[in-house]
Design a protein that fits this description.
Structural class: alpha+beta
Oligomer: single chain
Largest sheet: 10 strands, antiparallel
Shape: globular
CATH topology of the largest domain: Tumour Suppressor Smad4
Helix content: 25-40%
Distance between the termini: 24 Å
Number of domains: 2
Order of helices and strands: EHEHEHEHHEEEHHEEEEEEHEEE
């Protein structure tokens, strides 16, 4: 079977040498390179391979999910700084090892989340974390072309909260759940990673169920430590919550930042989150719970 390999040459860990090694592992393969933002969605729609494999970071993974027809299997190889999606699917943390694992991976059907029509694979959210995503994007890349790492992102999140005096007041209405200061929507148990440590806002979330929701009603100096302690022991964020939902409507008091799979989607006054059941076929690793 012939694979189409979609590569983001600007991803943090992607080099010409790495691409060549992945190509040798996947032979026979047709390689397509992204040239601009959104290009991977077009390439996924036009791909001719029996399988589509993506070597990139989470942003281009998201673009491919939004261009995938749902029938051909998708394989994700970590080429970015964090690369949450392949790790959440149980694949090795290096691209070549993940490519080798795809040879023995079983195709599995999974659900995807949607927010205002945009698909996401593992997480989305409204509020201060989405603002931190935007600030990291605005910071740009380092002199070697790499994006800032997890430590910089964590510091950016902390700065956003510090600038508000360690207080986040209710700023949105989660219809049917209540008022919240921020919103975290999960399509699997891992929302993101802090280095090797998985952050699980909603530990019960799965790739084969509906979306899960965690939302602090408000955040203050004392409650910050309570939320962090819950995350550290794997109990989830707490606060307002919803499990295995098909739909959630969010009405913001004023336009707030929205992100999906770490991609800035701009400011929104209304966000409609939905579950797209049985959406795509993925190649998952043997360590995945799928």
């Amino acid at each position: 079977m012939r694979a189409t390999l979609i590569v983001n040459p600007f991803a943090s860990n992607v080099t010409n040498e790495l691409v060549a090694e992945v190509e040798r592992t996947l032979e026979p393969v047709e390689t397509l390179f992204t040239e601009r933002r959104g290009h991977a969605t077009e390439l996924a729609r036009q791909a001719c391979g029996d399988t589509i494999v993506v070597l990139s970071g989470d942003g281009v993974f998201n673009e491919v999910l939004n261009g995938a027809d749902g029938d051909r299997p998708l394989g994700f190889l970590p080429g970015g700084g964090t690369s949450v999606l392949p790790r959440a699917l149980g694949l090795p943390r290096t691209a070549v090892a993940a490519a080798r694992a795809l040879e023995h991976a079983a195709p599995r059907r999974i659900s995807l989340g949607r927010v205002n029509g945009r698909r996401f694979g593992f997480s989305a959210g409204v509020g201060f974390v989405a603002e931190a995503v935007r600030r990291v994007d605005e910071h740009g890349r380092r002199h070697d072309g790499r994006r800032p790492g997890d430590l910089f992102f964590a510091w950016t999140v902390a700065r956003v909260v510090l600038e508000r005096g360690l207080r986040l007041e209710p700023a949105m209405e989660l219809v049917g759940l209540g008022r919240a200061a921020a919103l975290f929507v999960s399509n699997c148990s891992t929302y993101t990673y802090a280095g090797a440590f998985p952050l699980r806002m909603s530990p019960q979330a799965t790739f084969v169920g509906g979306i899960d929701v965690a939302a602090p009603p408000r955040v203050g100096p004392a409650s910050i430590w309570r939320y962090l302690a819950r995350l550290a022991v794997g109990r989830g964020l707490g606060g307002l919550s919803g499990h295995d939902l098909d739909r959630l409507e969010v009405r913001c008091d004023e336009p707030l930042p929205l992100q999906a799979d770490g991609e800035d989607l701009g400011d929104v006054g209304l966000a409609l989150f939905e579950c797209e059941h049985d959406a795509v076929t993925v190649l998952a690793g043997t360590t995945s719970w799928l």
